[in-house]
Amino acid sequence: MNQKELDKLSVNAIRATCIDVVNKAKSGHPGMALGSAPIVYTLFSKHLVASPEDPMWFNRDRFVLSAGHASSLLYTMLHLCGYKVSLDDLKSFRQLGSLTPGHPEFKHTQGVDATSGPLGQGIAQAVGMAIAERAVAAQYPQGKQVCSHYTYVLCGDGCLQEGLSQEAISLAGHQKLNKLILFYDSNAVTLDGGLDLSFSENVKNRFKASEWNVLEVNDGNDLDAIDEAIAKAKTSKSKPTLIIVHTVIGYGSEKQGTCKVHGNPLGEEDGAKAKAFYGYNYPAFEIPSEVYDNFKNSFVKRGKEAYKAYQANYASWKSAHARAALTLERAISGDVDAYFKKEPKFAPENNDSSRVASGKALNELYNRIPFLMGGSADVAGSVMTKINDGVNFTPRSPKGRNVNWGIREFAMASAVNGMCLHGGLKGYCGAFLVFSDYMKSAIRMSALSKLPAIYLFSHDSIAVGEDGPTHQPIEHLAMLRSIPNVNVIRPCDARETYAAWELAVRSKETPTALILSRQNLPLLASKYKEVEKGAYIISKEGKRLDVTLLATGSEVALAIEAQKKLHEEGIEARVVSMPSWFLFEKQDKAYKDSVLGVSKDKVFAVEMLSSFGWYKYADHVMGIDTFGTSAPAKDAIKSFDFTADHLVKFVKENLK
Amino acid sequence: MNQKELDKLSVNAIRATCIDVVNKAKSGHPGMALGSAPIVYTLFSKHLVASPEDPMWFNRDRFVLSAGHASSLLYTMLHLCGYKVSLDDLKSFRQLGSLTPGHPEFKHTQGVDATSGPLGQGIAQAVGMAIAERAVAAQYPQGKQVCSHYTYVLCGDGCLQEGLSQEAISLAGHQKLNKLILFYDSNAVTLDGGLDLSFSENVKNRFKASEWNVLEVNDGNDLDAIDEAIAKAKTSKSKPTLIIVHTVIGYGSEKQGTCKVHGNPLGEEDGAKAKAFYGYNYPAFEIPSEVYDNFKNSFVKRGKEAYKAYQANYASWKSAHARAALTLERAISGDVDAYFKKEPKFAPENNDSSRVASGKALNELYNRIPFLMGGSADVAGSVMTKINDGVNFTPRSPKGRNVNWGIREFAMASAVNGMCLHGGLKGYCGAFLVFSDYMKSAIRMSALSKLPAIYLFSHDSIAVGEDGPTHQPIEHLAMLRSIPNVNVIRPCDARETYAAWELAVRSKETPTALILSRQNLPLLASKYKEVEKGAYIISKEGKRLDVTLLATGSEVALAIEAQKKLHEEGIEARVVSMPSWFLFEKQDKAYKDSVLGVSKDKVFAVEMLSSFGWYKYADHVMGIDTFGTSAPAKDAIKSFDFTADHLVKFVKENLK
Predict the structure, then answer these.
(1) Which of B162, B173, B409 is opposite residue A408, by nearest beta carbon?
(2) Does domain B3-306 have CATH number 3.40.50.970?
(3) pLDDT tens figures, B581-624
(4) In a 10 Å sphere around its CB, with 0-12 CB exposed, 13-18 middle and 19+ buried, how is residue A108 labelled?
(5) Any idea what DSSP says for residue B391?
(6) Closest residue in chain A to residue B621, using alpha carbons only
C-alpha cells in the first residue's frame, strides 16, 4: 500500500470509528467529526509533535479542539496515536466514569490539552498557550531550546460567531503570534440549519482586518492541500494563520451537508452506507493494522525522536544554565516555595485599600517569582496591576511579563486559562468586580479544568461610588462563590491581602479570585496565617458570647466598630473575619463551630453586597439586595445604611 | 451671528458645560465627552428626530450612548434640547438621588433611550432597536406610517474591543439593518494609554467584512463633514453604516490626546485653559441664550413638527386600521390581557418535558400575541423555540417574528433588551442554561433597566446527560436568582410551565428566566394559579406535619415519591413546589409561613443543582456542589444520588 492509499485508509478508519463511537453511545456529534477528519489526520500524521510516552511533555505542540463537540474525533486520534485511550474507552464514549466524556476534559484524558465545548473558549485558550510559548522561550537564556512549539486549534462556525473569538483573534493578531495556527472547519451548516440563517460575514476579511494570514483549502478531502497549508502556516514570521478548510458536515452520511447530521448518531443503517461510500469494509471498531502502523511510523516515531532529542538537549541546556533550569522546573511544577523564604517578610503594615495593597503585593511577587505574568483589561491604574518598571509583553519585548489584555475581559480570562494549561507561567488578570460578569464562563472553565488562574477584582461594592449601579457589584460575590472549586478571597486589610496573594500563587488546582476594595481600609488585628482557614476570630467577645458578627473585606472594620457599641449596650459580640468561604468549608466541623461560637440564629453576617448565600452561616444578614446608586462613596454607603449604628440596631432588633 | 458661528458657539458651550459638570462632581469621564461633542451636536441639531414634550414618543429616533461613561455629554445635550434635565440637575451630576447618575439610566432620566456603561452593550441594544423598528413597521398595514425612524449609537474603542460588539455587528450586517448608524469616536487612546498597547485591528475592514458601509471623517471638529456623513448614512438602502470620526480625547485640555484625560476631571485650571482655547468666555454653568435658541430652532422645532405630523397621521392611520391600532397600542403598553380571554383555556395536560411544554406554550402564545418575537442562539430544536409555520425575520421577510440569533448568546440577550427598550414587541430568547454564563451581564442589564425580557433556558441540570460537565449547569440557578429583579421560574410540569409563560408575557418591569428540563416530567397535582405566588403546597402532609420538602422543577416529582416512602416510615412530609423564589419573596409573612409550615430546621430543599442560596429557606439541602459528569441522564442522576430513597435517607439522618 503506498502512502496515498494508506492516508486514505487511515482517514476512512478515523471516520468509520467516529461513526461507531457515536453510534455505540447513541449520543454525540458526528457531523463535524466526519467533516474534519482529514484536517486532523493530516495534522497528527504529518505535523504535530507530541509524545504519548510523556503526554504532558512541556515542549509538545499543543492541539485544542475548540469545537469540543467533535470529541469522538479527538478520542479516535488519541487512540490511534498511542495515548491511553483504548478501544474499550472508545466503546464507553459518554458513559459514566469513562475516559471519553462528552466533551474533552483536561487532566481527565491523556493527550487532551484543554477542556473545551463552551464555544469560542478553545480559540482564546490557544491564544494564551501561544503567548505562553513565546513568553517562556523569551524568559530563559537560549529559551527556544526548551520552549519552541506550535499551537494548533480546530474550530467551526460556532466558535467564530461567538464574540469571544473576535477578542481572541484581535489579541493574537496584535501580538503577532505567528506560531498559532487555527483551522476553520467551514461546512456552512449550524445546528439549526444553513449558516446563512444567521451569518453572512466574510470571515477571511475579518481575520485579515485583525492582522492574520489567511489560507484556504477548497476541498476538505484534499490531504495534500491541507498538508501544504499547514507547512506554509508554519513558516509565518509575524502573523498567526487561519486555514479555512471547506468541508462537508457528516461526510458520507445520507444526510451529509445538512444540520440533521450535526448532533445525532448516524445509526447502523446510515453508518453502514457511509462506510460503503468510503469503501471501508471493516466491522465496527475494527481498525486495520496498517492504520495503527501508519501512526506508529508517523506521529509516534516523529514524537519519539523529538522527545528524545529534547531530553538530550535539555540535559545540556540544564548543565549550562543551572539556575535557569531550576526556575523553569519550578515554573512547570508551579512550585513557589522558594520565593517565600526571602527577607523581608512578605507582609505590610498600613491602611491601604486592598486594591493598593494588592498592587504592592503583586509588584513584590512579580519581582520574586520570575514566571508570574499577567495584566488587566485596560484598568491597570484602577485595579492596580501596574508593575513598576515592568516591561510590556509585545512582539518586540516577548520577555515582558506585563500584558495589556485590552478591553477584552472574556478573552483575557480564557487566555490566562491557556497560559495555565500550557504551563511554565502563573497567569493573572484584573478587572472591576462587576465585569466578572463578562468572564463568568472562563472562570468556571478555570475551576472545571483545575487551573490555578488568579483573578483580581477591584471596586468590590457600592463603595465604587459615582460610577453608579452599572458599575457597582451586588450579586457578584454570590456568583463567584457559587462556582465549584473557586477560591474567592475578600481580604479585610492590607495584611490579609498579602496573605491572599500568597495563597493564590501557591494554589495548584484551584483558581483564586481576590476581591479588592476601592476605598482605604484600616489595618486591623488580622492574622496572616489564619487566612488559609477561611475564617477566624479577629476580635474576641467580652466575658460572655451573645452574638457573632461575620464579615468580610471592608465590613470587618464596621463589625469591630459595632462590637464596641454593642458592648456599651450590654451585648457581647465576637467578630469573625471570613475572607474565604471556600477555605472555611475545607476546615473540620470542630474548627468551624469554634469560630462561629454560637448557633446560627445568633450569627449576623455583614457584607455590602447581596445577602444571597449567606444564610448558610447566619440567620441574619445585613446586605444589599437591590441595585446600587450613583453617589460619592460615603453617601452611597450611608444611603444603604452600612453604618455601625445601623448594624447595632439590626442586631438588637433580631435578638429580640 | 451666522449659523457657522452659532454651531461653533454651541459646540464650545457643550464642551465647557461638560467640563463644568465633571469638575463640579469631582468625578466623571470628560475625555470622550470633549472629543465627541461635535458628533453629538451635529446629530442632535441637524438630524435626530425626537420630542421633549413626549420623550417616549414611539416613533422618535433612538440614540444610544454605548460609551456610557461620556454621560456628561448626553446630559448636557438633554438639557440644551429641552428635556427635564435642569442646570441644577447638571450641577448634581453623580450625586445621590440625582437625575444625572454616573452612567445613563433608562426610565430614570428623560430622553435616555438605554442604560449603558458596560461596554459593547449599547451597540447590541441598538441592533435590537433597529430590528424592532423594522419588525414593527412590517407587522402592521402601512406600518411605516407608524414606525419609521433611525437608530444612532455612539461608541469608542472600548465597545469595539469587546467581543459582544462583533456579535452585534455581525448580526446587524446579516440583517441588513440600514437604518442603524454607529458613530465610532476614534481617539486612539484607552484608559491605560495609547490604543496601540492592545489593539491593531483595521476596524474599517472588520466592519466591511461584516457587511457594513463605512464612512470616515478625518477631522472630528469638522461639523460639515460629520453632517455630510450622517446624511449619506441615512440614505443607505441595504447596510448599516459605521461612521468613523477621528477625534482628540479631552480636546482643549492640556492633557488632550492622552489617557490622563480619560477618567479624571480637568480641574479648574485646566478647565479654564480649555475654555480659553475654545475662545469661550462664560462663567461656569452659564450658557448663552443663543445656544438655547439654536436648539429651539433646530432640534426642538424639528421634533415638534415631526411629532405633530405623526399625531395627525396616526389619527388617520388609526381610523383606517382600527384593529391594527388596537394591537399596536397593546404592544406599546405591553398589555396582553386580551390574549388570555380566548378559548381554549391556556393550559395543557401531559407528561412533556418542560422544554417541550414551553415550546407548545410559546407556539400558542406566538399565535395569540402578534407582537411576541424572538428565537434562540442556534438551538431552536433543543430549547424548543421552533415556531410551527413560523416565518423567519430576514431582510426579505421583515414580518417574520422568528429570529435566528446565531451562536451569539450575549448579543442575543442584549438585542432582546434593545427590542424591549424600543417597545412594540415582547422579546424572548433561548439557550442552554449553562450558557446563561455568556449572557449574565445582559440579563443583569434587563433587570437594572426594568425590561420584561424573556429568557428560555433549557437543559437545566445534570440530567443533560452525555454532554457532560461543560454543558451541565450547577451554579447557574444561584447566579440567576441572585440578580435583583429577575424572576427565575423553574416549573415542575407542563401545567406550571404554561403558567410561567403567562407570567412572563404579562410582566412589565421584570425579566423572566424560564428554567426548562430536557427530560420528561410527569404531570403532577400542580396548580396553575398558584405559580404566581412563587411557592405552594403541591402535596399535603398526612395527619401530622413533621417535615417540609421544598423542591423545584424535575425534583418536585422526586419529593412526592419520597413523601410516600417517608409516610411508610412514619414521617409525615409536606411537599412544596417552589417554582420562583422571586415571587415567593413578594408574598407576606403569613403566606410564607403557612406554606413552609415548619421551622427551618425541618425544611428540606431538593434541587439537582447547587445548594447555594437554599439555606435561606431550609437548613437541609440536597443539591450538587461539584461539577457534573458525562453519562446518560439516568446514570448521571443516579451517580449523584438523586433518588427518592436517598432523599428519604437524607431526611431521616438529618431529623435525628
Answers:
(1) B162
(2) yes
(3) 999 999 999 999 999 999 999 999 999 999 999 999 999 999 99
(4) middle
(5) P
(6) A616
3-state SS track over B93-154: CCCCCCCCCCCCCCCCCCCCCCCCCCCCHHHHHHHHHHHHHHHHHHHCCCHHHCCCCCEEEE
Give A48-94 as a 3 state SS string. CCCCCCCCCCCCCCEEEECCHHHHHHHHHHHHHCCCCCCHHHHHCCC
The pLDDT, as a whole number, for residue B346 is: 74
Residue B193 backbone class (left: φ over 0; alpha: ψ -120 to 50; beta: rest): left
Distance CA A514, CA A501 (A): 8
A to B CB pairs, distance under 8 Å: 337
The edge-to-edge listing of strands for the beta sheet with A536-539 is: A536-539, A573-577, A547-551, A603-606, A620-622
d(CA B598, CA B593): 8
Contact B477, B650 (CB under 8 A): no
Task: Examine domains A337-515 and A529-655 and report if their fold is the same.
Answer: yes
Q: How far is B1 from chain A (nearest CA, A)?
A: 39
**Distance to chain A for B475, nearest Cα, Å:** 6
At B562, which helix (H) or strand (E)? helix B555-568
Question: How far from A293 is each of A179, A297, B302, CA to CA, in Å?
Answer: 29, 6, 79
Question: In whole numbers, what is the pLDDT of chain B averaged over residues?
Answer: 97
pLDDT at residue A347, as a whole number: 73
pTM of the model: 0.98
Say which CATH architecture domain A337-515 belongs to: 3-Layer(aba) Sandwich (3.40)
Q: Name every chain B residue with its beta carbon within 8 A of the beta carbon of A381.
A: 191-192
**Residues of B designated as active site:** 409
Which residues in chain B have their CB less than 8 angstroms from residue A438's CB? 118, 162, 440-441
B395 contact A CB<8A: no
Inform me whether the pLDDT recorded for B352 exceeds 90. Answer: yes
From the list B204, B405, B482, which residue is nearest A475 (CB)?
B482
* A167, A201, A627: residue with CB nearest B211: A201
The arithmetic mean of pLDDT across residues A180-186, rounded, is 98
The pLDDT > 70 percentage for chain B reads 99
Partner B contacted by A66 (CB < 8 A): no
- Give me the residue label for grid cell 498597547: B197
pLDDT for the residue numbered A287: 97
Q: Is A469 on the interface with B (CB under 8 A)?
A: yes
CB-CB neighbors (< 8 A) of B211 in chain A? 200-202
Residue A344: is its pLDDT beyond 70?
A: no
pLDDT for residue A408 = 98
Active site residue A305: no
Catalytic residue among A105, A133, A167, A409: A409
ipTM above 0.90, yes or no: yes
Q: Domain segments of chain A: what residues?
A: 3-306, 337-515, 529-655
What is the average pLDDT score of chain A? 97
DSSP A367-428: HH-TTEEEEESS-HHHHT---TTPPB--SS-TT--EEE--S-HHHHHHHHHHHHHH-S-EEE
Q: How far apart, in Å, are the Cα atoms of A102 and each of A92, A93, A249, A566, B175?
A: 11, 7, 19, 56, 34
Give pLDDT tens digits for A448-495. 999 999 999 999 999 999 999 999 999 999 999 999 999 999 999 999
Contact B174 A200 (CB under 8 A): yes
Within an 8 Å CB–CB cutoff, is residue A246 touching chain B?
Answer: no
Helices (H), A143-238: 157-161, 163-174, 203-209, 223-234
Q: What are phi and psi of A429, to 5 degrees?
A: -155, 160
CATH number 3.40.50.920 given to A529-655 = yes
